[in-house]
Structures are given as C-alpha cells and as structure tokens.
Specification:
This protein has 300 residues and is an alpha/beta fold. It folds into 3 domains: 3-86, Arc Repressor Mutant, subunit A; 91-148 and 270-293, Periplasmic binding protein-like II (D-Maltodextrin-Binding Protein, domain 2, 3-Layer(aba) Sandwich); 166-262, D-Maltodextrin-Binding Protein, domain 2 (3-Layer(aba) Sandwich), CATH 3.40.190.10. The protein has helices at 3-15, 18-24, 29-43, 59-86, 106-116, 129-137, 200-212, 226-234, 279-293, and strands at residues 48-50, 55-57, 90-97, 119-126, 143-147, 155-164, 166-170, 190-193, 218-222, 254-258, 264-272. The strands form 4 sheets. Strands 4-3-5-11-6 form a 5-stranded mixed sheet, sandwiched between helices. It has a two-stranded antiparallel sheet with strand order 1-2. α2 (18-24) packs across α3 (29-43) and α5 (106-116) packs across α9 (279-293). This is LysR family transcriptional regulator.
C-alpha cells in the first residue's frame, strides 16, 4: 500500500468528487480512479459508493479514512523528525566532562544547548580524561570535555577555552594580603592536590611549573573533588592550585589570587573521528564555542 494511494483516497473522501479530488492531488481523473480501485482491491472491500452526482464512503471507507489520515500524519511526522535529526535538532547526546568544568563553562553550555535544542536529550557523565577517552572509543559517550593533551589518533578535538592557574589560600594566610603572587612565593607551603592517577595531565603540569621555580610541592593531603580540596584550604591544611574558573566556587575561608607567569590549561571538546559527521555533535560544538566566546571564560 503506497502513501500516494492514501492521499488520493483522503482527497476523494473530502472533496466527494473525482474531478475536484484529482485537481487537488495534481493527477488526471483517470489516474485517481485507478488509484482508488487499486486500493479497494488491496483492502478487499468497497471503500466508496460511486454515483453520478457525488462520491460517498461505505462504512468500511469511513473507518479506512480514519486510519488513512492517521497514517499520513504519522508519515509526515516521521519525515520531519528525520529532517530535524539531520539538522541536529532531535536525538540524544551523551557528554562526558571532568569534574572541575561543573564550576565553569559546562553549566552555561548545557543551559544554552537545551534552550536551542529542546528535543535533544543531554546525558551528562562525570569522568576523568582517561575514562572519557575509553568511553569515546567504546561508543559510551558522544563527546567529552577535558584538558589537553589528547593522544589517541582516533579522537578529534577542538579547543574551547584556556584558563590560567591561580592559587587558593586560607583567608587568613599572610600571602592573602598580596594582590598577585609569584610561584616562588609558595615554595615553603604545604599543598593539597588531586591524586596523580586521576588528574595526570593537570598534576604533571603543576609539578613542572614548580620545578622550574626550584622546588617540589609538598603535598600533605590528597582529595578527589575540588570542593573537598577547597574545604581543606579553608581549614588551613594547605594551598591549592586550581584553574581560574574554579574561583567561581565561593567558599568561606578561601581566597583566590593570580600568579604571575602561570601556565595556561587548555580545555577541549573531544569526539570520535568515526562519528564526526553526527549533526548533534556538530550542534553541540557550535553552541559550546558560541557560549564560551560570549563569557568571561573565553580564550586568554
């Protein structure tokens, strides 16, 4: 059964005249008549009563009209949904992100994306960079947000924004009285930090920076989450070197200070090259770049 046969039947049922129905669907009258006859043969029962004046539906035809309209409406919705999918307007997007981005960048991107693409379901998953790379290879997420570097050649990446490191200090710390610090000012301080196996790129970059200033940070306490580390700073356990956008997380007893010549951390979106043509991923990347460009999170 072809959709055109259903369209011809609905037109005939509504016009009640072969000539007018044929004009409506842009076919000659004989073609419309043959279409209706073929439809009746396929259904196996008469659908219309033909008279010299008008066309009437049989009881079977009246029931068939209900289903024909529903089928045509469903077909139209299906076609439109496919077109929306091609534009990245429907579907599902699984996004991995490193924990710190929840405090800067990610909320703005997600909020804007949901406003622009309300028919795309966004599934957020907090994962380390290593876990994201594995999830992308295993098709468990569609796009990741992490820190450079991305070493897997099967993954593509796009820089979204770059942020310098700052220092988080106990509010009563003597160094908190300074407006700007040098990394050498921290050589005698105790540090709190992530375990290296969870944030290897971040950890190594900080260690190299401190080493260039002639010291190795004395890490006295490790913690997995940023809020926990900042709570340790507030308690006077040590100082912490977060990325600048973490300073959005206001915590009593903690102050943030810029550091001269601080290294810059680059945050990137990462996806599998195999799925690079996915229109939903393309839409996400476009929104992410636009949002970051319009925020104080833009590239430094």
């Amino acid at each position: 059964m072809e959709l055109r046969h259903l369209r011809h039947f609905v037109a005939l049922a509504e016009e009640e005249h072969f000539g007018r129905a044929a004009e409506r669907v842009f076919v000659v009258q004989q073609a419309l008549s043959n279409s209706i006859r073929n439809l009746e043969e396929e259904v196996g029962v008469p659908l219309v009563l033909r008279t010299t004046r008008r066309v009437q539906l049989t009881p079977a035809g009246q029931e068939f009209l209900i289903g024909a309209r529903e089928t045509l409406a469903l077909a139209a919705r299906t076609v439109e949904r496919a077109r929306q999918a091609a534009r990245g307007e429907v579907g599902r997007l699984r996004v991995g992100f490193v924990s710190g981005l929840a405090f800067g960048g990610l909320p703005e991107i997600v909020r804007t994306f949901r406003e622009l693409y309300p028919n795309v379901s966004v599934d957020l998953r907090e994962l380390t960079a290593h876990e994201q790379e594995a999830a992308l290879r295993g098709d468990l997420i569609d796009v990741g947000l992490m820190l450079l570097p991305v070493r897997d050649p099967s993954l593509a990446s796009r820089s979204l924004w770059r942020q310098p490191l700052v220092v988080a200090l106990p509010a009563q710390h003597p160094l908190a009285r300074k407006r700007k610090l040098k990394i050498g000012d921290l050589r005698d301080e105790d540090f709190v930090f992530f375990p290296r196996h969870l944030r290897a790129t971040y950890f190594d970059q900080v260690m190299r920076w401190c080493d260039s200033a002639g010291f190795t940070p004395h890490v006295v306490q490790e913690a997995i989450e940023v809020p926990t580390l900042l709570s340790l700073v507030a308690a006077g356990v040590g100082v912490f070197l977060p990325i600048q956008f973490f300073s959005r997380l206001s915590l009593p007893g903690v102050v943030y200070r810029p550091i001269g010549d601080a290294p810059v951390v680059e945050i990137v979106a990462v996806w599998s090259r195999q799925h690079g043509s996915n229109p939903v991923i393309k839409a996400w990347l476009a929104v992410a770049q636009d949002v970051i460009a319009g925020q104080d999170l833009a590239l430094v």
